[in-house]
Amino acid sequence: MGETRSVERVLIADDHPMVRDGLRTVISVAFDACETFEAASLDETIAVIEREGDFDLVMLDVNMPGARGVSGLVTLRRRFPALPVVMVSAECEREIVSAALSAGAAGFIPKSLKRGAIVEALKSVLAGEIYVPADFGDDGEGQVERRDIARRIEHLTPQQRVVLGLLVEGKLNKQIAYELDVSMTTVKAHVSAILSKLNVFSRTQAVILVNKVGFDRDSAGGH
Q1: Where would I find the beta strands (DSSP E) of 9-111?
Q2: What is the pLDDT along the chain (223 residues), one digit of tens a residue?
Q3: Are 145 and 124 in contact, with CB atoms under 8 Å apart?
Q4: How many CA atoms lie less than 13 Å away from 85 in the CB half-sphere?
Q5: Who contacts 71 (Cβ-Cβ below 8 Å, separation ≥6)?
Q6: pTM of the predicted protein model
């Protein structure tokens, strides 16, 4: 697991007050000085994000007013592509978990998990992992995660794949700019896009993530 980043702002989106209370307690215990926000519908969730700006994490209920299944996640990913969203649900069927991961969820946390397990799940997400329930179907957690990582990599442009390959090699931005004969501004733009599409928060986490599927310069297509 990578290094967990600091957590300052979390949005809990669930239409059940008791669930929000429970998750708020978990977050307050797990992350010191973390400010929590709440929403009871998808429209309210969007309004809070637009009003408050960036969040370190959004915990989104699968079924709530304005959202059914992964429709709420799809909406948030489209409107706020760099915002990490973890699905939280009482349901844990293979279909809904797979659909959430395919739609770009940073993880899927069953409400039935014990408090300590939820904390560990959140920390793994914040460290750049993709959390899925340990007993998720017959595929196993590793295969599910690798498929999802591969899907995220597929969204990169050819040039972004080249830059990612150089990140994996440990190259700095100025070295990448020199090697590709492009400006630093262009490199920074590529790196930002890569982090957004991979749904991670740092170059280090991007490298950790793609190394799980053996991404290297050859798979980046060279240049």
Answers
A1: 9-13, 35-39, 57-61, 85-89, 107-110
A2: 445 556 789 999 999 999 999 999 989 888 888 899 999 999 999 999 999 988 889 999 988 888 887 889 989 988 888 788 999 988 777 778 878 887 888 889 988 888 888 888 888 888 877 888 776 644 555 666 777 788 888 888 889 999 999 999 889 999 999 999 999 999 999 999 998 888 777 888 888 888 877 776 555 444 3
A3: no
A4: 31
A5: none
A6: 0.66
Looking at residue 7, the DSSP 8-state letter turns out to be: -
Q: In what order do the strands lie in the sheet with 9-13?
A: 35-39, 9-13, 57-61, 85-89, 107-110
Alpha helices in 31-88 (DSSP H): 42-52, 71-79
Residue type, position 138, single letter: D
Question: Which helix (H) or strand (E) segment is 151 a member of?
Answer: helix 141-154
Judged by DSSP in three states, 119 sits in helix
Residue 35: burial class (beta carbons within 10 Å; 0-12, 13-18, 19+): middle
